[in-house]
Amino acid sequence: MDRPRRALRARASPRMDADKRRTIDVDIRRLAEGGDIGAATSVALRAYGPEIFEFVAALHRNETDASEVFSLFAEKLWKSLPSFRWDASFRTWAYAVARTSSLDFRRAEKRRAARVVPLPESSSLSAIEAEVRTVTRSYLRTERRDRFAELRARLPPEEQELLMLRVDRQLSWDDLAVVLHGEDAPPLGADERKRAAARLRKRFQHLKEKLYEMGRREGLVGDE
């Protein structure tokens, strides 16, 4: 049974189309494989940084925490890019890195000050990171929050992740399996990815029903 998609979707800033993403990914890969990791990371942060910051801001719901997670993400992206295997799209991998950064932040709540390797001062990466955070924070502050977005905020972080990545970011089930498998874990084989995607589809269906029921209790949707 289809439920109103407005019960699932939170407002999000405009996304680039698939052709534009492919062009950007070619540029990132060319720079990375040419050894210019700083330039490749700069392109990546400018292209995907705003939507990644929105993702972590929605997960953490605290501007200071979201900013720190985004800083950890930018650092990890820069450090991990040379080893990225390109067996998924760059955007998919970036969300996996962001999710790992968020989990690391939560696990290290008492050790937040320890950042082992800062972004290189000689590059413009720190300035780009700060620019993305500033612009995106301004956007988020002016965004009108509807009541369904507030319902979503009551969900556990792992359920918010699934909703945001599937509904707002429109990741495929295969890409979702990669992101939620973990950026540091061994890559999934084709059969493993297929099984993981099937499990995620079931989780998502249960989550839709759960959110719909929450909306019904709040009087936001009617009984059928």
TrEMBL record:
GO terms for molecular function: DNA binding; sigma factor activity. Keywords: DNA-binding, Sigma factor, Transcription, Transcription regulation. Residues 46-112 form the RNA polymerase sigma-70 region domain. The keyword DNA-binding applies. It holds the Pfam family Sigma70_r2. GO terms for biological process: DNA-templated transcription initiation. InterPro entries: RNA_pol_sigma-70-like, RNA_pol_sigma-70_dom, RNA_pol_sigma70_r2, RNA_pol_sigma_r2. The lineage of its organism: Bacteria, Pseudomonadati, Myxococcota, Polyangia, Polyangiales. This is Sigma-70 family RNA polymerase sigma factor. The keyword Transcription regulation applies.
